[in-house]
Amino acid sequence: VGAAALAALGGLRTRAADAAATQAFPKNFLWGAATAGHQVEGNNTSSDLWLLENIKPSDFAEPSGDACNSFELWPQDLDLVRSLGLNSYRFSLEWSRIEPEPGQYSLAMLDHYLRIIEGCRERGLAPIVTFNHFTAPRWFSADGGWTNSAAPARFARFCSVAARHMAKDISHALTLNEPDLPRLLQALLPPVAFAGQRANLAAAAKALGVPKFVAANGVNEEDMPAVQAGLLAGHRLGREAIKAVRPDLPVGVSLAMVDDQAVGDPGRRDARRAAIYGEWLDAVKGDDFVGVQNYERSRTGPDGPLPPPEGSPRNWSGAEVYAPSLGNAVRYVHAATGCPIIVTEHGLGTDDDTLRARFIPESLQGLAAAMADGVPVGGYIHWSLLDNFEWIFGYRPKYGLVAVDRKTFKRTPKPSASVLGAIARRNSL
Question: Is-above-0.85 flag for pTM?
Answer without folding.
Answer: yes
